[in-house]
């Protein structure tokens, strides 16, 4: 098979920017939007995030099954980018819309729109990620694909969402108007980027037709121990940045007393993320994706914890330590997505049943579970601390937000390092798997 061209990887990876303009707007601002703009209590927000993930436990594997068994002139996975982009971004607008409703009506509206968003997100993001498994079987090419994807998903999207959205919202008379218009602009951009990825992506790896049935979904997941370990690590790693991003605006607005510092903070993080994205392919090539993921997780834990002990008036030091943590976090984000396609071949080798959709569906479910876990823990902790929107923080609420911004992410990242100790799918084993699978295909 011919090596992938850089332009092929670039065009495919634009889709991750499209997905993350949507995904990160939700991750950064929806909890704040619900509590401080729409007027829903933090307790209801915590419950909403958990209930939505219960539905995903059913929805995601079924979507993986459907994607695996899809037949179309465009392949198995690409058509979902074409037909799913508009529904995904229309429901984004609904999430940031504020209809005049009673308190109960607002909660019901939030539940309905957020759960539908989760369904649409799976409809697009799962097939999109699955394309990477049928673009190449080369481990280093997969690491490069993951690097491009994370550059767009984290560096570019972070610059747009983390740095640009709040100043953009401030241009409007109310936050209600600002967030809705921001969702409109980002949603339209997302559609264009996803369609670009659809038109220029190719499913290049020829694989056997999928023959498994719905009843096989759970065994396919359970027997793939490499997938289970990696998904557990990804859940914890995702919880790190979801928690930090979700409480960042609360931290700067209430603890440090200046909401505008949030944009400055993420502007400073951009060079760290860019450098991390640039360096990661060289690190993974030298040390492997697993070791890169493990030791970077430990680094994130150390620097997140150390930030907790820096005085509030030492902003330069807070930003510097955060930048180092963000630099290490890029290693984790790139490595995990580069490792996921390897578990597809591992599962095929171990069970005799090949599925791209199910491993990616399980990963998608765990990613959204991390959002729910982190979001619910943060929201419920703030509720218990006595947090009330747009008022002076109590001592308990102040302490809680500080812990959520610093110590809780450090705990998640430490646990991620421990989980990765159980991951055994290294380079030599993967090469053996590819050789044996290729030999079987030639004989058949």
UniProtKB/TrEMBL annotation:
Lineage, top-rank taxon, reads Bacteria
Where is the protein situated, by its record's location annotation? Answer: Cell membrane
Q: Does the keyword Transmembrane helix apply?
A: yes
TM regions (residue ranges): 38-58, 79-99, 111-129, 150-173, 179-201, 227-252, 264-283, 316-339, 360-383, 403-423
Membrane topology is: Multi-pass membrane protein
Where would one find the signal peptide in this protein? none
Q: State the family named in the UniProt similarity comment for this chain.
A: Belongs to the sodium:galactoside symporter (TC 2.A.2) family.
Protein name as annotated? MFS transporter
Annotated source species: Lentisphaera profundi
């Amino acid at each position: 098979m011919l090596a992938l061209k850089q332009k092929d990887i670039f065009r495919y990876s634009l889709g991750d920017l499209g997905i993350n303009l949507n995904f990160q707007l939700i991750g950064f601002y929806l909890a704040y939007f619900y509590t401080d703009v729409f007027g829903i209590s933090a307790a209801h927000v915590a419950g909403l995030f958990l209930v939505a993930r219960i539905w995903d436990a059913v929805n995601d594997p079924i979507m993986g099954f459907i994607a695996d068994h899809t037949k179309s002139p465009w392949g198995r996975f690409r058509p979902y980018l074409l037909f799913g982009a508009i529904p995904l971004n229309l429901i984004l607008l609904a999430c940031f819309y504020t209809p005049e409703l009673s308190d109960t009506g607002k909660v019901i509206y939030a539940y309905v729109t957020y759960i539908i968003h989760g369904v649409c997100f799976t409809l697009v993001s799962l097939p999109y990620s699955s394309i990477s498994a049928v673009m190449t079987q080369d481990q280093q090419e997969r690491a490069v694909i993951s690097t491009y994807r994370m550059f767009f998903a984290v560096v570019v999207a972070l610059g747009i969402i983390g740095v640009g959205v709040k100043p953009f919202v401030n241009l409007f008379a109310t936050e209600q108007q600002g967030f809705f218009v921001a969702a409109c602009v980002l949603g339209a951009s997302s559609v264009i980027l996803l369609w670009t990825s659809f038109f220029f992506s190719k499913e290049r790896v020829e694989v056997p037709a999928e023959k498994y049935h719905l009843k096989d979904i759970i065994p396919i997941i359970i027997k793939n121990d490499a997938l289970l370990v990696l998904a557990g690590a990804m859940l914890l790693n995702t919880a790190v940045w979801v928690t930090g991003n979700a409480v960042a605006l609360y931290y700067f607005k209430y603890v440090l007393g200046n909401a505008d510092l949030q944009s400055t903070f993420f502007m400073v993080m951009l060079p760290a993320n860019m450098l991390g994205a640039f360096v990661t392919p060289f690190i993974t090539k030298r040390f492997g994706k697993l070791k890169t993921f493990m030791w970077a997780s430990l680094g994130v834990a150390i620097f997140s914890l150390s930030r907790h002990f820096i005085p509030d008036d030492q902003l330069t030091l807070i930003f510097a330590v955060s930048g180092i943590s963000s630099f290490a976090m890029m290693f984790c984000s790139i490595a995990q997505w580069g490792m996921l396609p390897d578990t597809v071949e591992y599962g095929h080798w171990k069970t005799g049943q090949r599925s791209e959709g199910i491993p990616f569906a399980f990963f998608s479910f765990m990613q959204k579970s991390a959002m729910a876990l982190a979001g619910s823990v943060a929201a419920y902790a703030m509720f218990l601390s006595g947090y009330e929107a747009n008022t002076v923080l109590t001592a308990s609420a102040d302490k809680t937000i500080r812990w959520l911004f610093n110590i809780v992410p450090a705990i998640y990242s430490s646990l991620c390092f421990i989980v990765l100790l159980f991951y055994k799918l290294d380079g030599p084993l993967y090469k053996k798997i590819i050789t044996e699978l290729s030999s079987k295909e030639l004989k058949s």
